[in-house]
Amino acid sequence: MPDLKIPAPALLSARIERWPIAGAFTISRGAKTEAVTVVAEISRGDFTGRGECVPYARYGETPEATLAAILAMQDRFRGGIDRQALQVLMPAGAARNALDCALLDLEAKAAGRRIWDLLGRVAPHPCTTAFTISLGTPDAMAAATAKAAYRPLLKIKLGGEGDAARIKAVRREAHECELIVDANEAWTPENLERNLAACEEAGVTLVEQPLPAGQDDALAEIRRPMAVCADESVHELSSLLGLRGRYDAINIKLDKAGGLTAALAMADAAHAMGFEIMVGCMVATSLSMAPAMLIAQQARFVDLDGPLLLAGDRDGGLRYDDSTIYPPDATLWG
User: Fold this and answer.
1) Are the beta carbons of 33 and 20 closer than 8 angstroms?
2) Which distant-in-sequence residues (6+ apart) come within 8 Å of 283 by Cβ?
3) Beta strand pairing status for 324-325 and 127-128?
4) For the chain, first and last CA: distance in Å?
């Protein structure tokens, strides 16, 4: 990767933003009605780069602590810092993601070029994103699926007990859709094979994180009838080796990886190791999705529907044509 440095000094600011969700977003760990994001802005001269992150409660992150971690870097930025130093100074997570993406955006704006050209990456092209069906009763999920059945790829949130009935009800309404499911760690070794069989019968292509992270050894001991994807079981590049034999794919999220810089390295390494790639997101605005479009170019499964789940996206957001997502304009990011 080219060594692109941001000259000192740079000024750093950040803020918490709240974005109402259209209805509610429900997974096995609970429901929420708003997306809470943290936006970092890094300025040098006439140019300002932006990055957005979503603190991940699953890993103990909060918006307030994430904001504090970002603002604690102000002196470092006033003294001069680049993305390579950032990887060392901060751990992977949401705070580093916002700063890494803001630095990349600033690099592109200062150079007057698109970031993929500066990074030597293929220019992103439009791709198809999954659309999420929240966890609910079989009837409620069937009704939600019926409204979204025109979309080519649906991601079905499951929750453990009763999942066979849920996936059967969804398939009844989604005759032509490709289906992927996400159990969010809600299955057990006792119901794993039964739930996988129900997914196989429904023609599901991929099952995401069926067992709790750290308790997924059973995946190595059974026949996996479709690709099984690690999400909560994969974080940084160093976690990839331990997934062999249990998982067929990995879900790369910038908030887990700690930014696009680390996520690109993870994607390259995962491909070399034979894993399929899924690029995922938290519920957030287009500013979070835009950097992930570079990972989407290497991904078999793209799940960047966060803005579609909001009551409204930020001004100048990504263009979504039903389930087709287009690369960002330079005014948004990169």
Assistant:
1) yes
2) 21, 25, 32, 35, 54, 306, 309, 310
3) antiparallel
4) 16
Partners of 207 in the beta sheet? 181, 228
Exposure pattern of 300-330 as b/e (b: 16+ CB <10 Å)? Answer: ebbbbbbbbbbeebbeebbebeebebebbee
Of the CA atoms within 13 Å of residue 43, those in its CB half-sphere come to: 7
Rounded distance between C-alpha atoms, residue 195 and residue 123, angstroms: 39
CB 317 within 8 A of CB 286: yes
Mean pLDDT of 138-154: 96
Angle at 68 between CA 63 and CA 69, to 5 degrees: 100
Query: Beta strand pairing status for 249-252 and 227-230?
Result: parallel
- The better pLDDT of the pair 318, 22 is held by 318
Which member of 109, 147, 155, 157 is catalytic? 157
* Averaged pLDDT for residues 217-223: 94
Domain ranges of the chain: 11-118, 127-325
What is the spatial distance between Cα 40 and Cα 136, in angstroms, rounded to a whole number?
35
Longest dimension (CA), the chain: 59
Is residue 253 annotated as a catalytic residue, yes or no? yes
Q: Which class would CATH give 11-118?
A: alpha beta
Tell me which H or E stretch contains 321.
strand 320-321
**Tell me, what's the pLDDT at 279?**
98
Yes or no: domain 127-325 corresponds to CATH 3.20.20.120: yes
List the structure tokens of 293.
């479009």
Residue carrying the six token digits 């879900």: 251
Catalytic: which of 32, 109, 168, 253?
253
Q: Which residue has the higher pLDDT, 31 or 40?
A: 40
Alpha-carbon torsion angle 11, 83, 332, 66, nearest 10 = -70
- Cis previous bond, 9, omega within 30: yes
- Going by the DSSP 8-state scheme, the letter that residue 327 receives in this structure is P
* Residue 130 pLDDT level (bands cut at 50, 70, 90): very high
Say what the pLDDT of residue 27 is. 67
Instruction: Quote the pLDDT of residue 192.
Output: 95
